[in-house]
Amino acid sequence: MSTADTADRRRPPVLVVVTLLTALLTVLLIAFAWPAARSEPRDVPLAVAGPQSAVGQVTAALEQAMPGGFAIEPVADRESAVQAIKDRDVYGAIVLDQTAPEVLTASAAGPVVSQLLTQVAGKLAAQNPAAAPKVTDVVPLPADDPRGAGLAAGALPLVLGGILAAAALTNFAKPGSGRVLGAVTFAATGALALTAVLQFWLGSFEGNYWANAGVIAMSIGAISLTLLGLEWLIGTAGLGLGSAIMMLLGNPLSGLSSAPEMLPTGWGALGQFLPPGAAGTALRSVSFFDGAGAGQPLAVLASWLVLGLALCGLGAARSRRVVQARHQGSPVTV
């Protein structure tokens, strides 16, 4: 039997290839389109300042207009509402002042939610034209990127950066500490480059350049080290599985283009425990809110970094056992 005949027998039937490609395309569509198609407010934290009776009326009106859309947090006055926004406890606020009603937004926390609150202000104005509320953006996005397009688009490069780093190091670097050092170095250099583009060229970031770069470096490092460790332990399947989780779950569920509370129930919360979602929330906090609300997402990124290093350590230990077994001529156990 010729080599060509053997190779032909090893190739899967065209129908199988087409079926797998169709399934992959369908999964990609669901992963990226489903969260966007089902985007709507779900328990979005919203402060309301004013008399107790008025707060109750507004709460009831919002619940009737958007059932389950807002989680109302009563506050004492406008100053308290502004502070709650800056502390990232709420996305915005409604100030029920009879002489000067006002809707407070924070486009830096999420432009989609900010637009939603602006619509709420329009509905309040329609109900009482004589006391139409004004809209104030308490924490606006930068003037160079008023829609937050740079930050939203940055989610994909963060994920791809980690995946490409793991794939390249797996193929071109010998197993060992060199791969880990390469991943850490790339995370640092890649973060410095991405942050420079987003902050100094596109104007999508504010705040401290090094702090923003630190968050991005943690994100790229968390992804690349985790994928390296998985490949080290279980081979190509581990790299593929990890990449699929980061790309098909982490990226569309990050909430960077809207907000976690705008995603289907439960999925937005899940996205915040994956590196892309945690990185997006931490970047908003560090860049626009002086670090307020960054504690949990930074802890998530740190946990993924530790997990990645642990997986790499386990992979290195497995490699040593394999080498020792080969030298001793005994069967290799995993």
UniProtKB/TrEMBL annotation:
Record's keyword annotation contains Transmembrane helix: yes
Stretches that traverse the bilayer: 12-34, 149-169, 181-203, 209-230, 237-254, 298-317
Keywords carried by this UniProt record: Membrane, Transmembrane, Transmembrane helix
Superkingdom assignment: Bacteria
UniProt-recorded name of the protein: ABC transporter permease
